[in-house]
Amino acid sequence: MAMVSIKDVAAFAGVSPGTVSNVLNRPGKVAPATRERVEAAISELGFVRHGSASTLRAGHSRTIGLSVIDIGNPFFTEVAAGVEDVASELGYAVILGNSAGSPDKEDRNLRVLAEHRVRGVLITPSGEDPARLDRLRGHGISVVLVDHPAHRPDQCAVAVDDVAGGRAAVAHLLAKGARTVAYVTGPLTIRQCVERREGAKAAMRGVGLEPEDLRVYEATTMTARAGEKAAADLIAHGLPEAVFCANDLLALGVLRALLRSGVRVPEDVVLMGYDDIDFAAASTVSLSSMRQPTYQLGRIATELLLDECDNPDTHAHQHIMFQPELVARESTQ
Amino acid sequence: MAMVSIKDVAAFAGVSPGTVSNVLNRPGKVAPATRERVEAAISELGFVRHGSASTLRAGHSRTIGLSVIDIGNPFFTEVAAGVEDVASELGYAVILGNSAGSPDKEDRNLRVLAEHRVRGVLITPSGEDPARLDRLRGHGISVVLVDHPAHRPDQCAVAVDDVAGGRAAVAHLLAKGARTVAYVTGPLTIRQCVERREGAKAAMRGVGLEPEDLRVYEATTMTARAGEKAAADLIAHGLPEAVFCANDLLALGVLRALLRSGVRVPEDVVLMGYDDIDFAAASTVSLSSMRQPTYQLGRIATELLLDECDNPDTHAHQHIMFQPELVARESTQ
DNA sequence: CTCCTCGAATAGAACGTTTTACTTCCGGCG
DNA sequence: CGCCGGAAGTAAAACGTTCTATTCGAGGAG
Predict the structure, then answer these.
(1) Residue A65 — very low, low, confident or very high, per pLDDT cuts 50/70/90?
(2) Is there a contact between A252 and B279 if contact means CB atoms under 8 Å apart?
(3) A177: left (phi > 0), else alpha (psi -120 to 50), else beta?
(4) Residue A71: its chain B contacts at CB < 8 A?
(5) How far apart are CA A107 and CA A120, in angstroms?
(6) Which residue in A296, B110, B161, B179 has its CB near the most CB atoms, within 10 A?
(7) Would you place residue B1 in the very low, low, confident or very high pLDDT band (cuts 50, 70, 90)?
(8) H/E element holding B57?
(9) Cis-peptide into A149, omega within 30 deg
């Protein structure tokens, strides 16, 4: 309760508040003797700078926002770990927002971030409406897109080539001899899901199959539970020879349901996931997947964002596009 | 860049700034006609309240801090999901801190939270030094312990009985006929690891075995990789009949390494994890585990914290202790 | 000895809200 | 008709920093 302010420190050290502020923000500008006296006073009184006052006056905070689609998905957790590491190295705090795939919730989160006057926002957008993000930029908040290509040239973005990933995945399945392929996906409002589907279709075209023959099952969420439901559907409507899932969570659910129903993987059905989360390798039948540089995605995006914030004049906007890498395991032997 | 303040809104609507503030904070106090005019001005100008200014003047923010030991662990992710849900329902933002098991990093995170003058902090402490937390309370920041019993009576805490969990887990292994038991744990600076060990010893005493015969392998991190290393060690020094791991990540790593070395689970070794993360059921040999009400842990802790903040007079501190539940799967058949 | 410069520190005005005390207005009551 | 009370709105003072302009000395150059 005993809130000790910069004024108290100043009085205690026998200097003016301005000097204390200087000690805090540009220690070089103050004579060593004075600095020591002030520092002693600070630790003596247990002073902690009031971030809000600082933000208010300085016009910007040392906080960034991170908005992801599903914090329960290890993919995003690992992105978040990368973000957190860089941010904390540079003394930034991270405000976390989980959009749960709902543009509404995402909007609410962005409003909270705007109110906090965060320095910048890292976002994996769940909808395709760039206007909301532009509004943030209108408030002087930098935006870096994560796992999403740039909406506009004067913006940074870090993404992974999902079309290529979808193509590689399905090409791999086709190479195993499968000719009927199902695609189990999350909501097709999510860009990643759509692009992986386009890649899948391209792969089918590549071997002379009709892209329209790709059987698409659209789940409402991208969880293991949804995957189990999708598998039940697949079984009910006749099993394909191959199943490609938009992420590993779905794939693990599909796998579990298939095995429970006595369908053998990979003998009866070959199966691929996407993201190569840690658990893909540990599952009953280890899961083939598309690996993405997840942690790096978070790190690099944060570095770009903070560079844009701290060096606005020298900063060059970048659009980085990684290529995913196929990891073949038992589920496609 | 065009920062529009409450003043601009006031001018536009032809009222005083105070009235705009009233519209924002107690709409009841202002005449309907005026209110509408102000609301129109707000959306017309795209006004967003400056949270820092508000915090500064009001003396408290609508932000809470969440400090966890490992955001990469699905256990904590699910806690975080519960926290995020409640917080966002009540209009609070969540600042995330990952201590990575290091008290230093935790300290840094707590300092950031203190600077932000968060309303309260939810923390799974990684060290056993209550002093740092008391310092937060000294700044008027409420603290609720998550997955940890209370340090003091005037404090809320939500925990799960780890001694009982460890006892139940090892009792289950012993019931399967095992007589030599290894305990693969994370750093013994972590309370959970210690208490689960105590429970394990109690279980051994329960069947007339020497508690000292529990073979303890202390890994430096609680990850699958660390589990693999521990398994290699186990194999090198002679396999026990049962392995109890302090969490599922370790157990999955142990499982993977054992299987790769041709050790059969559960025929040669029975194995238990802890936490019952989603992936425990999906692994090669599905994993027996101790289930905890993870999401509820986050939800309830947050509800307690926000109740303490919003109703400081009627708030009653609570120490909640859940009991874990044994889930038997293939690894202990 | 004076004038300048330069480093070090200070005073005081911001920043955008919230809040308290105060004004104004209007209807009703004695 | 005068007064009172309440509703509605306003003016202005905070909150704790940062930053700009300013002062104050101490040295060095002329």
Answers:
(1) very high
(2) yes
(3) left
(4) 77, 80-81, 84
(5) 15
(6) B110
(7) low
(8) helix B51-58
(9) no
